[in-house]
Amino acid sequence: MSHFIVLGAGMAGVGAALALQARGHGVTVVDRREPGSETSHGNAGVIQAEAAEPYALPRDLPTLLSYALGRSNDVLWHLRDLPGAAPALWRYFRCSAPQRHARTSQIYARLTARATDDHAPLVAASNSEGLIRRTGLGEFHRSERSLETAARNAERIGRTYGVPSRVLVGADMTRAEPALRGDPAGLLLWEGPWSCSDPGALTRAYAALLEARGGQVVTGDALSLRQQGSGWRVQGADGPVDGTDAVVCLGPWSPDLLSRLGYRVPMVWKRGYHGHFASPAQLVRPYLDAEYGVVLASMTLGLRLSTGAELVSRDAPRTLRQLDRGRRAAGELVEIGAPIEDGIWHGHRPCLPDMLPLVGSAPRHRGLWFDFGHGHQGFTLGPTTGAMLAEIVDGRRDDLTDALSPANRGL
Question: In CATH, which of 3.10.20.880, 3.40.640.10, 3.20.20.70, 3.50.50.60 is domain 1-56+96-127+195-267+352-411?
Fold first, then answer.
């Protein structure tokens, strides 16, 4: 069997490593930090079984105008960063055209539909049941108009993809979430998603499972990858790490490595923030405050508020506008206490313009494999795309693998 160097110890990398290991391959995971320390730590902790359609770039004029004028808390942008982001954003805009997005969603829905099933055996084997809630994902809507629009869209999603949801108002809403203290118009409850009280800890538990089964997790410089004879080598903290194959699972850093090998990967980096706050009550499930684009989730460290997208270069200074505005708004829905010291984080979602992850073999390098570009759903889809990659390595070829293939995506 082959020995794979998996570059990246987030949920995508650890998911790929476990899947390859399960098929008999040797595996070493290499990262500069411990597992689950980057984007896999910072997300809202939802395994989004309801996310049948990836996030498209809005194309209607009122929404774009609200973004342009800074009226929406969903998206924040900076003029200084637009020139560098413009080519990928233009491709994203084109791929978001309704017919193209509908075709993409038919593929994407097949991935998210199996997400909880792919996590389930890993949750059990890693003794992580205490981190998981199977209580769905809620959306609070403050106006009747917003609730009606969301309900119509949820009904369409249900008809098209079989994703269950229901609308709760009045006493039914407050029974569903006893910590609610505001008076929104209603709650859209997606019933299929799971959530996690510490997504970084879940990723580390999966990595510990990999090690217990004979794999290795080592500290090293993933960007040092180079060909070594007929295989691959990366520099670890304790010396070189060699393998017959290498898998790029570096999320937003994947283009940095691959550019050195001649691959130009366009990516939209959507920065997200979270902050932790003291909270007197545990929420039953995570909630999106639909009007202000912030997700509220009870975590081990406290109440985590996670923001939407900031279109910014990766080295730009931190801007807490979305988080601060979201906190003020969320305080109208649930009680939010004082900030927890050192509880603010930011990172970048690796969003590809066509909204599908790249999974499969590198077009021009034998033994090099891709598994990145999950956008908002790396925590959700890590085990799923990892399982698919392992199947592709062993010869799987069909319409789904063709849709995710780097060779078919212009690389």
Answer: 3.50.50.60
